[in-house]
Amino acid sequence: xxxxxxxxxxxxxxxxxxxxxxxxxxxxxxxxxxxxxxxxxxxxxxxxxxxxxxxxxxxxxxxxxxxxxxxxxxxxxxxxxxxxxxxxxxxxxxxxxxxxxxxxxxxxxxxxxxxxxxxxxxxxxxxxxxxxxxxxxxxxxxxxxxxxxxxxxxxxxxxxxxxxxxxxxxxxxxxxxxxxxxxxxxxxxxxxxxxxxxxxxxxxxxxxxxxxxxxxxxxxxxxxxxxxxxxxxxxxxxxxxxxxxxxxxxxxxxxxxxxxxxxxxxxxxxxxxxxxxxxxxxxxxxxxxxxxxxxxxxxxxxxxxxxxxxxxxxxxxxxxxxxxxxxxxxxxxxxxxxxxxxxxxxxxxxxxxxxxxxxxxxxxxxxxxxxxxxxxxxxxxxxxxxxxxxxxxxxxxxxxxxxxxxxxxxxxxxxxxxxxxxxxxxxxxxxxxxxxxxxxxxxxxxxxxxxxxxxxxxxxxxxxxxxxxxxxxxxxxxxxxxxxxxxxxxxxxxxxxxxxxxxxxxxxxxxxxxxxxxxxxxxxxxxxxxxxxxxxxxxxxxxxxxxxxxxxxxxxxxxxxxxxxxxxxxxxxxxxxxxxxxxxxxxxxxxxxxxxxxxxxxxxxxxxxxxxxxxxxxxxxxxxxxxxxxxxxxxxxxxxxxxxxxxxxxxxxxxxxxxxxxxxxxxxxxxxxxxxxxxxxx
Length: 682
Known about the structure:
This protein has 16 helices and 42 strands. The chain is α+β, with helices and mostly antiparallel strands. Strands 21, 22, 23, 24, 25, 26 and 27 form a 7-stranded antiparallel β-sheet that branches. Strands 36, 37, 38, 39, 40, 41 and 42 form a 7-stranded antiparallel β-sheet that branches. A 6-stranded antiparallel β-barrel has the order 1-2-3-6-5-4. The model is unreliable at 2-25 (pLDDT under 50). Keywords: Hydrolase, Protease, Serine protease, Signal.
């Protein structure tokens, strides 16, 4: 993936307005490019991610892709954190076509870097590439972007470095909004400036290497413009190397935090220090008297200055790399003069809390972190932030209904600061089916609501409908004016389709016949598009009633004598079943399904109504509209037999795959479910 942002669009202004920083250089020869390519491209991998996101309160599995580079003999792969974000399982495809599962070693959203490790069936030593040790790029240097744009592996493009130190802050931006614009609850790029280059990249290049002509990884491609390959941004190689090494060693990045943010002196007329942009309420910095607008002149006796925005990330990184719990002395200039401020660092807090779906409520919720609370004026609160609601689900029809952005505080009087607490308070059905009492915060108000939870998977059985009569044809309305123009000899409804075995089919009706009256009552079309008057007239007659239908065929009058029958069930009247293990929605096969596909009247099977692309069925390439007729060793004739066939196939455990036979269009196809998909995905 490549992150697309408003900031990237605004950065185009910078590119257009910045004068050239270096004279054009001679293009490198093909031999030099080939040598650099051969050092890195063979160890660049395509990454397939099965990710779990939340839409309308429900977990949804999908497939995304990105790129990465093997950087250790043990098979560690450097990529972007936004490539692995929300990932539930990972597979990597090597340049030689070999495919291996991979595990997530660690991810760091603040740098947008992550590390996967390939898991071969037997231990092996992996060929790998190396990061550049120094940030020695200059404008005009040739660079190669490698990866899998749009999932197309083994791709490479060439370009030049436009600017080796770029922030996505245009001439018209307020730099104070920079981090939040890059990610509302997960700011990134806090500790480095990007390499701007023009090697063509596209979605799928994310995490792939930017390589110089010496065959070194000088950057990790991260951002670009989806509608043009002339503006791309990469994390500098030395910065990426440090984060990747730390993730390989410990699986996480430990940073210090002092409770304030910085900005440059740009536009102030000052020449010394760096400005304090904001101070967190209640932090040690605020208690020590630090205020927005103060200038930090030195950190532990060493002078610091940031005259331009691009110089700020290095200072923020320097503070972040202080030992957690260490005491730091800041030399500060403010309105009253200069003084020393002593602070003790604390661990960098999480920016975003874990998000999960809670099925009994039909909602997705995220644990509220201190940073999320500050952004929403919810400081000091602990709870679960509502991020999505299933339409018609328990939370959406609670009294009163919950809304996205509400903060759930308690359930039946029990505080729910995290997912574990919610599971303990409401994970089991309440005694007697009673409603739950929720306390939640909406804006500055604390409210309560009654919610009736729903537990467990449920088979949807539609409410029975009153029987309606059916003639067994589809028709086109023919108004009097249209009949005159077409010289049809009369108005009414022209038959466009006759269902085999239906009442009018048995009576001899054919496509093209013009139906004029039923039991002597004329059939009149209200307009040229609606066939409702005909079908409503038929539905008004009791099923089993014999009727006379007057018609015209090629201008000649004729009549059909037919007993109307009960109408077949429409799609909305069929039972449905959601198979959580396959991540598909299924329903019974109905009369109109068979008619639409011209299947035999006795055809049995189960219709697929929906497939999550990242679920086991989606990975096996099952599609919406397929009809499952066999799974494993068993025939599938209805919903119950589908569930039984799946249970039997999983219990059997024979072989790596489970065959699934489906009807798709005019074909019968065989597809294969990988067993590991059914265990690795939720």
